[in-house]
Amino acid sequence: MHRKRSNITPGLPVNVILKADQRSGKKTKGIVKDILTNSPNHPHGIKVRLEDGQVGRVIDILSE
Q1: I need a surface site. Which of 14, 35, 37, 64 has the fewest CB within 10 A?
Q2: Please, which residues have CB within 8 angstroms of residue 8's CB and are 6 or more apart in sequence?
Q3: DSSP H stretches of helix in 1-64
Q4: How many CB atoms lie under 10 A from the CB of residue 16?
Q5: Dihedral sign, Cα of residue 8, residue 17, residue 35, residue 54
Q6: Could you tell me if 50 and 33 are in contact, meaning their C-beta atoms sit under 8 angstroms apart?
Q7: How many CB atoms are closer than 10 A to CB 60?
């Protein structure tokens, strides 16, 4: 789980867990559009908005 805000930048391909999927742990793949977490780190992962408008917490940073 990526808890440091400095590791995440717009345009980065990531896996997130959406609020609705927190119980199941289902991952959603997308590209970061906005970083929504203001603190430098967060225990549950950095919250981001994907380019398709979905919001979730970053679980994995994907390499291209």
Answers
A1: 64
A2: 2, 14, 32, 35, 46, 48, 58, 61
A3: none
A4: 24
A5: positive
A6: yes
A7: 15
Residue 46 CA to its chain's centroid (Å) = 6
What number of helices (H) and strands (E) belong to the chain?
0, 4
pTM over 0.85: yes
Q: At which residue do the structure tokens 């992962």 appear?
A: 45
| DSSP run (H or E) holding 56 | strand 55-61
Q: How far apart are CA 11 and CA 26, in angstroms?
A: 22
Domains of the chain in start order, with CATH, are 5-59 (2.30.30)
